[in-house]
Amino acid sequence: MTLEQLRIFVAVAEREHVTRAASELNLTQSATSAAIAALEHRHAVKLFDRVGRRIVLTDAGRLFLTEARAILARAATGEQVLSDLAGLKRGRLSLAASQTVGNYWLPRKLALFRTRHPGIETPLVIGNTETVAASIHDGLADIGFVEGEIDDPLLAQEVVATDDLAIIVAPGHPWAGRARVDPAAFVESPWVLREPGSGTRQALEAVLAGAGRSVAGLDVLLELPANEAVRSAVDAGSAAALMSRLVVANALRSGLLAEVAADIPSRRFVMLRHKERYVGRPAEAFRALLAGEAA
Question: Are 8 and 35 in contact (CB under 8 A)?
Fold first, then answer.
């Protein structure tokens, strides 16, 4: 069994498609299929079932996928240790970030980091707060950035910035002309919400809880998995949403959206790392860059 076979197996398992996995790995379809066949033949176990044009993991394949990912993560850690010896001349810093952080706050930091360390690759995966925390917990990323609350004793958490939140509506919404809206009055309007697990959703739930209310009491028009989708839905005119000012700053300046004054506390952007996993020099260099900017 080789690391290359494991990489191929994981790629095929995650995509459930040999051709797509081969393309992303820059391999031929025959080489990819051969690697899977070699694993199955050598260990006398079937890892995939062929269902029409798709392939799906067998029970054995699902069990093996967990182990294969763990082995690859450990190998990546070993490679990072060796890369550190090169003095940041080359290496890899794998990042995961929730949507607001990853799309609006983090890119400028990454651009500055790459300017200082052009030999360090910085792949970024964007999800919601829960998926980012899971990526760090499972060793799929080196460091993560979220705006939600995380309850995981294995994850070290460090505040790196604050984020202002706002209730936004279309200019024709009844709230657009009001001086202030109390959280207890949120039931008066339809709402567009982010999905459960997102930091923005958690922030709204906390505001409602402080007023003795809950999301269950709102007239929820839509639940959407992306900030841009929420903003577009609010632009239609009938609903309100809680969003980061980073997301809606341009729309507020141009008058396409209006902000409703309300008692909404700011939230924190938090950097996550695994307490028991090796943190390489690229991660430490990025942390130092953030600390220097904050100073």
Answer: yes
Q: Where are the alpha helices (DSSP H) in the chain?
A: 3-15, 18-24, 29-43, 59-84, 99-100, 106-116, 129-137, 199-210, 227-235, 245-254, 281-294
What is the model's pTM? Answer: 0.70
d(CA 133, CA 128): 9
Which residues sit opposite 155 in a β-bridge? 274
For 212, residues 6+ apart whose C-beta sits below 8 A from its C-beta are 184
Half-sphere exposure of 33 (CA within 13 A, CB side): 8
Q: How is residue 127 written in tokens? A: 């999800």
Neighbours of 9 (CB within 10 A): 26
What is the largest distance, in Å, between two alpha-carbon atoms of the chain? Answer: 72
For 285, phi then psi, to 5°, come to -65, -40
What sign for the dihedral angle of Cα 98, 104, 107, 108? negative
Taking only the tens place, the pLDDT of each residue in 44-90 is 999 999 887 788 999 999 999 999 999 998 888 888 777 776 778 88
